[in-house]
Amino acid sequence: MRRLPIGARIFLAILAVSILTMTGVGVLVYLKGSEILRRKTGEELSLAAQVHAHYVEHHLEDLLRDLEHVGRLAPSWMLQEDRREKADPGGAPRELFQRSASYVQERFPWVLGMAVRDAQGRILAASHGEKVHSSRPPPYDPLGLLKKAVLVTFPSTTEGDPQGPPLMEVGTRIAATGADSRERYLTAVVNLEELIGRVPVPEYLGRSLAIALGGTRGEHPVVLVRNLAVSPDLRTRLSQLLQGTDSRTHPEPSPSGRETGPFLWALSRLPRLGWPLLAALPASSAHVPLSQLFQVVVMGVAVGIGLAFLVALYASSAMVQPIKRLTQAFREFSKGNWDVQVPVTSSDEIGELTDGFNEGVRFLASQHAKLRRFRALVHHSQDAILLFSASGGITYCNKAAFDLLGYTRREELALKTLSDFVCPRDKARFEKTVWPAILEGRWEGELHLCHQDSRPLVAWARAGTIPSDREGIRLLYAVLRDISERKSYEKALQEAEEYYRSLFRSSQDAIVVTDPQDVIIDVNEPAFEATFGYAKQEVVGRPIGDLYDEAAGAPAPTGDAWGKAPGRLTLRWKRKDGGVFLGETTVDVLEGSRGQRRGYLRVVRDVSERVAFLEKLEKAYNDLKGLDQLKDRFLAGISHDLRSPLIPVRAFLERLLQRRWGPLTDKQEEFLRYCLIGVDRELILVEELLDYTRLQSGRLELRAEELDLQDVIRTSLFLLKVQAEAHHLQVHVDMPREAVMMRGDYNKLLRIFNNLFSNAVKYNRPEGSVSVRGRWVDEGRFRVEIEDTGVGIPRESLDHIFEHFYRVEGERSGAVTGAGIGLAVVRELVRLHQGRLEVQSTLGVGSVFAVTFPTMGPGEEAEKRDEELGRKRKG
């Protein structure tokens, strides 16, 4: 046996134990099988009795609730006393009763019929009357299921065929209404056999199960047998057995089946009614023949031995295979395979061993990986890391150490110690204080080191000893970080802080710094004390609200009212002596590095004098505005007075030039033309003044009509040619022949071109020229350009020539008369016509004024002509 492999020994052991166990179980089952089956059947029979008791009582309760509901809806004829008049009601009442009865029978198939009884037990109405019991006078036995439930008849007292199905009639009282105070009963006939037959029980019990149900007041029990082949003698014995049990006072239900002769029986009671219910089963149904039991035992033992063989084979293989895998894994691990793992196939001791092996391999692999990572981390660290012996010689340094100290090869550091890198000014401190502290265990602080090229640097050093398992052998470490740049930044930051602190102190405005709760934490002493009269120590710790003027109508805003953007307000502040001043206050939010609100900064400037000056300035502005309005009214009046006499003078001059009152000499005609030019100039000036006053008052309006822009230009060209001849100028006209139709005010358009032509003449050079060109920009716009060869307009004046009363300072500005409002009026008139006015000028060369107007397209002109033709025809 010892020479067998461990797998074979495990297999034989498991197989032997299994065979012995199965054989022992088979013998026990053979010896005790009949008794075990009988006890099991008795327990199931007891449970079946309890199920029948609960089932019958539960369904009777549901039936009585439905009867009670139908009784509440009972028509009035059910409650009448005179049965002869209402025995067979027709129409809706009877249909209602039949529907109610059908509904109850659909819900409870074991209900055969329903009836309405009077107080004497007579049947007033019935559904399926042939199945309703004959009348039985009260009193009826009360049923404890509902308050008004009654038992009319029990199967033992049912009249009729004794061989028929066991019927029981139950009902509920119906309350009387009106003058009749006697009660009625609504009853239903229950087929107990069908009710019991619906109880769910196992099929092997239901084939031969018998149920006996006892009533109240010593009534004979009713025996309900599922299998109809049971003899009458069996029924009689069951009834006697139930009566003998019921004769005792409150007998307790049997917890398990009892055997009485050829019966196994179990007793239970309906929980609330207390009726005894007995479930019986022939004892022969609970026994198994010994030969049949022997065959079953033999087959069971054979199957068990076969399964034991397979289980033993599987168990031995499952135990040996993991051991083989562990052996192979140990060999792989010994060869340097750090990733070897053995799958865990069980949770027993072998599985725990395998799991422990895997954990050990993983731990060693992780330690190996950590060692490699630490080596890479140390090698690539930005801090310089050095290892020293106890004597101070360098044994290891990473790449950052070479870069920090300025060396490139390890051989250059072979004979160096840490003391060799310390600057001379710091060497005495190093040897006296730093090195002993490193040897004792740990030291941290600043060191002044020297680069290989003698350049000094400041390093933050952490150094100490590394414990060793071997006594007398120790390693020292040093971690160095170059902080030279940080030190320079700190110095610059300190200088900047001192600089801004000096600005804070030297500011002429009062500066108040508060925390997030608006409590003062700092002020600039000279300016704050000069503005508010308080010393710094008198206001630090006080809320900012103490400095506001309480007499102000609305409370001053606190810091919470401001967002992240700075705000500016003019607030009323209070001095220490009680005086109040207006302070222009700028509030800014102070934030931390993470955006959190750290407080508020208020800069207060005393603007009381400036506000008083602004008030005076506003008063002067209002006075000037009134004078300007007075000037406008004066200009409007004087323009009207000047225009009235000039109109008839111009008319007389035109008639004289037309020779209506006689011939004229050349000299007379020349003088009359000069007079006409002067009158036209005055009229233009007067019209400009009138338009200017209308523009200022907003009363300048257009009388728009359809017109040809060519007619306006031709009329204005007459004045241009007259003025040009007087100044010895040449006029060039380049206009298209076709009409240029548009909507506009004829007089306003004439004034636009008269003004532009007049300026082209007035500001021109002697023997110069004026060019008038017209062209289509596109289908809906026409452009007119007036170009002169005058003195031109300086570039800095181009943006101001359209302002009121502005005149260009230049070569001929003093020789040309005018009010300086002509171009301003022209621009507004062009804008009212939805046009555009442009100017280009070159100093010493001349100027070009261009006016672009929207025109009417061909389709619009044709449409207008058709409308006019239609109006003429209608007229």
TrEMBL record:
Domain (HAMP): residue spans on this chain: 317-369
Record keywords: ATP-binding, Kinase, Membrane, Nucleotide-binding, Phosphoprotein, Transferase, Transmembrane, Transmembrane helix, Two-component regulatory system
Lineage: Bacteria, Pseudomonadati, Thermodesulfobacteriota, Syntrophobacteria, Syntrophobacterales
Record's subcellular location: Membrane
Main location: membrane
A GO CC term attached to the entry: membrane
Region (Disordered): 856-875
Enzyme Commission identifier(s): 2.7.13.3
Organism: Desulfacinum infernum DSM 9756
Enzyme class: transferase
Catalytic activity: ATP + protein L-histidine = ADP + protein N-phospho-L-histidine
GO BP terms in the entry: osmosensory signaling via phosphorelay pathway
Protein name: histidine kinase
